[in-house]
Specification:
Glutamine Phosphoribosylpyrophosphate, subunit 1, domain 1; about 30% helix; Rossmann fold; about 475 residues; homotetramer; six-stranded antiparallel sheet; seven-stranded antiparallel sheet; alpha+beta
């Protein structure tokens, strides 16, 4: 529970959602707006849209929700058939406007705009290389590194230049690019983060982080951009190039299925909602419980709780009410409130808990701060037993590929074993889904990054990963 | 679906939530903040807090969510052991700062602040009376009428003055008042809107529109302010006066149970969550359906859908994904998007709908605009049949007691019968819960206002109800 | 030198400028805007415009300069042939939006808007009377008192009602009023503050605090509203009523000529610029000095310095450069800057001061803080002698008629005699113009309020003048 | 007169003021603030301050006046003994935040911040060169070009790197630089724009565009940075390097003396106030007039008018009152106001004009739009003759060195001869000071850039000067 504690979910934070639009017969910025609006769950701190009309690239971006950043007066001037958009989760402290995407620069080949989801693990090396070549860097974002490398790459076309520099990027990059007269989209060869494209109703194409965003704007024929693949879209024309061979095994982020993605997303041919229900079912098989009711920790655990309840034949019901009106608050609770451990974001439905043996299904335990509070709330509502079931294994290792789970010190599973966590949060029993069962629930043997559970990272991670960021934090705008 | 269509729920809009705090050993403004934060669902357009420290009354209010209006720099100066707070839903067009509550005036007896939930039906007469007595009115709000009547009332104390004027107020008034050294709370003799009080953990009392707000700040011993009752609270001392005899039958708003209140609220000894589940169960008995899945229209219909599914033994599941990141948008969709009828606020989970006979449970149909879109979405997701079940009767009459349902012209059930509505929204079948079954589900024979369903208003409504407002709209700030 | 010391002029602060427009063939709000813009020197803290179109009154007001408060989006909706406007100097601490004028209320006779310049000395009594009659007061402004008294007055027309209540107002009131279909203007019977009207070029009339504002919008035939007179203007029709007999002697504020009014103003048939030049000439006769150069303290003393120099045959030149880019700053200087006594608002022109005997002409000395600094600056620039000459007598008494000169404790001439002030500010000699010479320079025997010099107030001043304000400061928005 | 016509002075617009501070025993940001505040006349559109504490560089900048951009909450975090500051005039259309200075980047050698006054005439070539080397440019400002060239330069120290790249900059550059632990200041070898340094009272140094800014913070021993010279300041230690040989003849901007600089500035050993008085005296000798009064066009022409009057023995007086409360307004006048040609920024003092033969002294005529209006105003006030005298020659050529005078098409003297201008603005006679007399008044034979009068530019100007800007305007933030 940090300073804006009342809204802390104690859950991982995804960094970004991306969108790219080529809509020869529509206003691309509007489609980009509605698609970004549907990706709001992937980042609520900042948003931006860049458009192109064949000649110039225009940009508006700012801090806040998509609907706050884009009023008609800001969206209307963004004319043209091409657009890219971005929603961003801003990590604590780096609240600078300079890090908001898309990132647009002028180059010898005309204007270039860029937005991405994911994190490079060799950003520090690449930044130093740029600095050694005499660049002056204005921000601490990977986007600037990507953009300047592209701007300085050799090649007769943006495709060629992208093909040249992409192999140098180690880590998670789901990238969209806009130039004066086309859009490009590319995905790292490991396939860490999702990137999907679909056909717009009458003409053109759209690319986005999730299928839900594409559906919102009427897309059909949705297909995954393959790891290592580059799309080049001009008007209605889409070309695909496998510019880097797909790494085998691939390294899709399991957490997209467990928590990040909207339940209506389909990724790797899996419906996220169905996957979560299966995770709950598998969890019931691995860690059953004698109980009178199964409740979810809202909202992402609902399908898993339904699945868990169904397998065991225990009634499913709601046990928590969540304050839906989000918005960071920096008001600190009084000491008295703190003493009572009141969880300001959740209230309980005692009629569903009182006198009952309760199974509480959650998608993950990261820092462990909220879980204990929720358990206390459920007990205070009269539950006679509280059993917690978690649809993934303990998270004992940080993510370096775009998910802000916190550092080693912050992860409770890095410090405590399951029995100690059970004691710590005060449950009667605690069960985590194992890696094997989790993959079984997804119906996959391999091709996923489970590093946060196993510590086995699919690419080597530099030890000084955070150094650059810390050094450059000295320059604050 | 109006201009800010993407967020329209086609649901009634509640006007207000109120809070009053007497916390001799805490900072009352903080408790008021967190309680108002928990009442955010009762009004997202504006918020305010007034405090008293024994000498002066201090006020801050503004437009936006509670967390937006109150930053530490605004909350910190609000010192003292007494506070009242208000969250407001602002009806279209009257976006004036002048109508935001609490409303504070200086009087001969010192400063007086006031916030309320509900609507007077004789406000026009009362305004005219004040004007005839030479008052100059600054706003179009009932609050000013209430405050000026109080300021001008005879009596040796605020209790006496309130007892004097309250009988003149016809309609719904759940009122909280702050003076330099106490708080008061009162409820109209019909009991239209809820008002609950509870004991603060160490000392003092709190009053709020819903129990959830009181729980959030640690209250126990929650009790309803009786219709016609006045509470006077000084420090830890609470006195109750029945200043008007309770009208029989009482006229609690059924819609609080059906839609407005948070599911964790308890009102009239009824758990709202349980009540909604019972409504769903009764609905299943009155309008069963042959179906493969029962889905709620999120979020308020979830317990009813669970109840409906349980009675019929049909699986419950989620069918819609709702974009939770609220915030009005004024961006219009493109013609192409419009043509497709895409509902930007909802996506479907086709894996739960495809090839299935679907029952969609909703809490109400007001204007009928969203329902048709949702039906289309469910069909587009592959449902073979779509049956709609509604947990209340058709709404054919406007509410004049604080709920913005729209005018006669806007209510679909005022123009169409059930078969025509079924045709209009394109369902295979449509069933509304009857008034009798609804009351049965609530376990009550009487004591509720069902005027929006029956047209039988519990108090006479002036025909010229809206006149004052229209006349005064001429003065715009 | 207060907290926003760097811009303190140590000069009295005028409270307001007012405007009223009846322009049957133009957009009144535009004329009101430009007239208020020309009255910006009478109040830079807040501005407002109210308009009427025959039916409704519309209002926009806010804190800041006229050009900041009124963007086209705010001015354009203010349609109609009638307008009133106000610019306001906000005294420290009462920065509330609620005190900004015009003040608009709904009354039994339709909407009523009002703005005024000046201060009532019996406001406390009048407020209490209103409170006793049951009014609730929302602000600490005289405007609300004036408006509510008008709203509650008997009479068949606004003229009658105004004639009824105006005799009850003791003090300075230059008032403009707007109703749905006319404007009114009135001036207290003493004539403390100016109020002028003129003919608009093609049709209609305008009223304003100064002739310069009327000239800016093309007025001709400028005439003073007589003390005790009321103007009623409908379209092109202007009627004049002497509703209170003019008090003899009248009590025009001498300080308007000395400091407040723009030099292009003509009041009481006197050109302010010429009057100031005459004040300087008379000052030279009363307090000549052997000197090499005469410099003004910019900007208001320039004509007086020209006059002073001319009489003595000493060259006039500039000695100070003033930073024109106003705007309050709350940045505190460093201790080192403070130690040096650097006057951040003024620099010197040493080439005009070095080795010279300098006469520095200023219009007034109020608190005495700036004068000493300026003397130090002139000496630091190399002046061998510094003689100060002031175009009015020592100010030893506060003003209760709309000029914020500070309290008795703050006025240096209330505590020190002229020789002590000379020592205090470090001049070689110091001369104040006497009351007799000052009146001689204006060419008037009587009819002016010189209370701030003489202590002889033209109306009795309540001892508890500030009580109400302090009490009500408890209610802060 | 453009869209924000009411404030147009029809005078050239200076682009910038710069400041650099090394204050080992004070808070540098405060000194930078007050110095920038004193340079507000050199740019009112944007302001910024960057500071260094030996480790990091911190920056705040924004649009508005210095006092608006810097509240205590923004200034207080800017800690450390080093600071640079900038005030900016933003040319129409390029209102982007991205062009506001200082410009800060991270480089291989640590953070680098930079602000400058002046314009490069080879910026287009330099931008292309950077782009060819693979840079991506984010703004259309010269600052980014300067910063990226510096970041990419070879050399063991910033001195060496600056010495390396400065010879490549053609045009006007008065530059201040901040690194983590020192400040640098440099001036182009022609010396177009001023740059002065002085000793802080107890320890350290300050550099600024004008002496007035240095005096404001207590500096002594003020010395000009020589053309081609570089200062390196660490703590109390100042080193000077002549990194480029001073060009002979030098090319100081004459317009600094005529109009831009504050009258208290001393540059090239000339007091600006004295210089302006001499220009007026010389003008009286070259173009005398039979007149009754000499009036200035306020404010910059006042000393010249005093000088002009003195030589001819004609009384000097004020003829115009200027609305001092600046602030752009975008409100358009009514047609009626327009028809009357009312100059909303100026009123006249008819008592000084009526029946008189008037000489109106102005510092320059650029577009000619305001002059005609002022002449009309003076005639309307009753002048029998109006003679205009201008303290510089006709401006027939644009400036490419940092002064926004407009293009060839906009300059009235590029299209019309003096007799035609006389007709155009409606004067009885019109006299411009000749180049020879102007230089004589300044007491200089050579060393000044008079290109705007003569068309003889001191460095070759690229024909495609504006191309880059236009191309890049395509990217709008």
């Amino acid at each position: 529970m940090s300073d804006n504690f009342t809204l802390s979910d104690d859950r991982p934070s995804e960094e970004c959602g991306v969108v790219a639009i080529s809509a020869p017969d529509q206003v691309a910025s509007k489609l980009a707006f509605f698609a970004a609006y549907a990706l709001q769950h992937r980042g609520q701190e900042a948003a931006g849209i860049a458009v192109a009309d064949g000649r110039a690239v225009r940009l508006h971006k700012g801090q806040g929700l998509v609907s706050q950043v884009f009023k008609p007066s800001k969206l209307d001037p963004l004319v043209g058939p091409y657009a890219i958009a971005h929603t961003r989760y801003s990590t604590t402290g780096s609240n600078s406007e300079r890090n908001v995407q898309p990132y647009v620069v002028e180059t010898l080949e005309g204007p270039l705009g860029l937005a991405h989801n994911g994190n490079l693990v060799n950003a520090d090396d690449l930044r130093n290389e740029l600095l050694e070549n005499g660049a002056g860097l204005q921000s601490s974002s990977d986007s600037e590194v990507l953009a300047l490398m592209l701007a300085g790459a050799e090649g007769k076309s943006w495709e060629e230049r992208l093909a040249k520099v992409m192999p140098r990027w180690t880590g998670a990059v789901s990238l969209v690019v806009i130039t004066s007269n086309k859009i490009l989209a590319a995905r790292d060869p490991w396939g860490f983060r999702p990137l999907i494209y679909g056909k717009l109703p009458t003409a053109g194409w759209a690319v986005a982080s999730e299928t839900g965003a594409l559906e919102t704007i009427g897309c059909t024929d949705m297909t995954e951009v393959k790891p290592g693949e580059l799309l080049v879209i001009e008007g209605n024309d889409l070309r695909r190039h496998q510019i880097i061979e797909t790494k085998e095994p691939q390294a899709r982020c399991t957490f997209e299925h467990i928590y990040f993605a909207r339940p209506d997303a389909v990724w790797d041919d899996l419906s996220v909602h169905t996957a979560r229900q299966s995770l709950g079912e598998e969890l019931a098989r691995e860690h059953p419980a004698e109980a009178d009711v199964v409740i979810p920790v809202p909202d992402s655990s609902t399908p898993a709780a339904i699945g868990y309840a169904r397998v065991l034949g225990v009634p499913y019901n709601e046990g928590f009410v969540k304050n839906r009106y989000i918005g960071r608050t920096f008001i600190e609770p009084t000491d008295e409130l703190r003493k009572q451990g009141v969880a300001l974001k959740f209230n309980t439905l005692s009629e569903n808990l009182k006198g009952k043996r309760v199974v509480m299904v959650d998608d993950s335990i990261v820092r462990g701060t909220t879980s204990g509070q929720l358990v206390d709330l459920v007990r205070a509502a009269g539950a006679v037993e509280v059993h917690m079931r978690v649809t993934c294994p303990p998270i004992a290792h940080p993510c370096f590929f775009g998910v802000d789970m916190g550092s080693y010190e912050e992860l409770i599973a890095n410090k405590l074993g399951v029995p100690e966590i059970n004691d710590h949060i005060g449950t009667d029993s605690l069960g985590f889904l194992s890696v094997e069962r989790m993959m079984k629930a997804l119906g996959r043997d391999d091709g996923y990054c489970n590093a946060c559970f196993t510590g086995s990272y699919p690419v080597p991670v530099q030890l000084n990963l955070l150094t650059t960021k810390q050094r450059f934090d000295g320059v604050i705008e």
